[in-house]
Amino acid sequence: MGKKRCALAGMFLLWALVLPGLTGCGGEEESEGITNLRISKDGAVTSSIVEDFGKSFYTLDTLQAMVNEEINAHNAEHPNTVSLQGMELSEDTGGVLVTLQYASCADYEDFNGVELFYGTPAEAEAAGYDLNMLDGSFSDAEGSEVKLGREEILAIKNAKILVVRQSAQVSRISLPAKVLYVNGGSITGGRTVELPGPEETGDIEWQGGLTYVITK
């Protein structure tokens, strides 16, 4: 992660220390119960983070103030790149849903300190991602193995590639185009990919390898 500060992971670690009930993202299949990212056609990124919330130990207003403090500090150096879209508490589940929006994948990357790229394969290489480093083993929508090397990837017309670091803060990614192949995850819908997560649900600092997703 280098010098990047991974703001949200640090924030949730703090919450876990002061909130005995904070255990990490939920396991429900519904989208509102899954920590996820949504990338729009204009490149904006929406992050929805679901956490348990020990409301007897903290107030929602205090949590919102903590999030806004991180955002304001970041935007002071990078104006209008991160915003808090909402923070909701479910009385039924006791969970809190935090929704943040980033102007671009680069802004998400800068704020959280984890890789997130979406562009053409050529742009991915220009950004420093070596497609030759892939082992060539992708899965298609049926779960079948597909061998793709650098030349095959570059030859896919109108293709784009997502590169994302596996982390406890991302369980699902929704993309603005049809998902063709994934390396390091599974296709669960026409435009949706599930990523591997930590073995222990509460391990909010966990990070894995890179996931590559090819869309068209």
Summarize the structure.
The protein is an alpha+beta fold and 216 residues long.
Number of helices: 5
Overall tally of structural domains: 1
Strand content: 25-35%
pLDDT < 50 stretches? 1-5, 13-32
Q: Which strand order do you get reading across the main beta sheet?
A: 3-4-2-1-9-12-11
Shape: globular
Task: Describe how the helices and strands are arranged.
Layout: H1 7-18, E1 36-39, E2 45-52, H2 60-77, E3 82-89, E4 95-102, H3 105-112, E5 116-119, H4 121-126, E6 137-139, E7 145-147, H5 150-155, E8 160-167, E9 172-174, E10 179-183, E11 186-189, E12 192-194, E13 207-215
Helix pairs in contact: 1-2
Could you please describe the fold and organization of this structure?
It is a single chain. The protein has 216 residues and is α+β, with helices and mostly antiparallel strands. The protein has one domain (7-215). Helix content is 23%, strand content 32%. The chain is built from five helices and 13 strands. The chain has helices spanning 7-18, 60-77, 105-112, 121-126, 150-155; strands at residues 36-39, 45-52, 82-89, 95-102, 116-119, 137-139, 145-147, 160-167, 172-174, 179-183, 186-189, 192-194, 207-215. The strands form three sheets. It has a seven-stranded mixed beta sheet with strand order 3-4-2-1-9-12-11. It has a four-stranded antiparallel beta sheet with strand order 5-8-13-10. Mean pLDDT is 82; it is low at 1-5 and 13-32.
